[in-house]
Write a structure and sequence with these properties.
Length: 281
């Protein structure tokens, strides 16, 4: 590390996490030489990393470095983008997600996703949570399933007396927690969260962060965030992506992946140090 760098609040937060419990090391995703392209240009190239069970993994980096592209590869959301192409291998619990015969709908059930902007359906709170189970034929004990999902998203006490009200009547933070409830109602193993708190005020953001910490008891979480303080607060592992610019081509590359405290307090790569200390990005 360069001498004389002033300690920033984000680094102080990361240091405070050093005494946290050791994370488990059961591998959920084994990602090998992953390259994702839209048309001819790769958005990310040659990504290798492992993601662990019941751990929060943060993906950070400057705009345009492929963070969202990366996590969308994990549940085959990029299949829905015309011209998208995936090379390399993603093993999910030992199985190749992109092997022939793998049902992408089942992949997305087991690997749920919550987007940057809360996107509840213009239906009742109840019907939002019940939608996925109904579509997948998981209709047994539906009331109990809806309640369990809302409790899991720390929303039940706030909405239990107005389940038939339109979901769009909820606040922004409540809508985002409703989207999390909708995702967990179909019993996934993994939750992908793409900037889940970027549009929320500090109080709602704090509620989402507390919820993520609770959810990792039952789920594996991967979160994309521009907020380094948030990554330092909630993540056990952090992957730093950056842009490799060559002859006008801009490709996202994984620079460094390690425990969050190390990424923020003692990174191995100068590019990581420059980013977390605010020198670029």
């Amino acid at each position: 590390m360069t001498e004389g760098i002033t300690m920033t609040p984000v680094i102080e937060v990361a240091q405070a996490r050093k005494d946290a419990e050791p994370v488990q090391r059961d591998i959920v995703f084994d990602i090998q030489k992953l390259t994702a392209s839209y048309g001819k240009e790769p958005a990310i190239s040659d990504v290798d990393l492992e993601i662990y069970r019941n751990v929060i993994t943060a993906v950070i980096g400057p705009s345009g470095c492929g963070k969202s592209t990366f996590i969308r590869c994990l549940n085959r959301m990029n299949d829905l983008v015309p011209g998208a192409k995936i090379d390399g291998k993603i093993l999910y619990q030992g199985d190749d997600l992109y092997a022939s015969g793998v049902d992408p709908v089942e992949v997305r059930r087991r690997i749920g996703m919550v987007f940057q902007k809360a996107n509840p359906f213009p239906k009742s709170i109840y019907d939002n949570v019940a939608w996925g189970p109904r579509v997948l034929g998981m209709r047994k004990d539906l009331d109990e399933r809806v309640e369990k999902a809302l409790r899991g998203a720390a929303l039940w006490d706030e909405v239990k007396d107005r389940l038939k009200k339109n979901a769009l009547s909820l606040s922004g933070g409540q809508q985002q927690r409703l989207c999390i409830a909708r995702a967990i109602a179909v019993e996934p193993d993994v939750l992908l969260l793409d900037e889940p708190a970027s549009a929320l005020d500090p109080i709602a953001t704090s509620a989402i962060e507390e919820l993520m910490d609770e959810l990792k008891r039952d789920y594996t979480l991967v979160i994309v965030t521009h907020n380094m303080q948030q990554a330092a607060r909630v993540a056990d592992m952090t992957a730093f992506f950056s842009l490799d610019v060559d002859e006008g081509r801009r490709t996202g590359v994984l620079v460094e992946y390690d425990e969050t405290a190390k990424i923020f307090t003692n990174p191995s790569d100068k590019r990581t140090e420059d980013y977390v200390t605010g020198r670029f990005g």
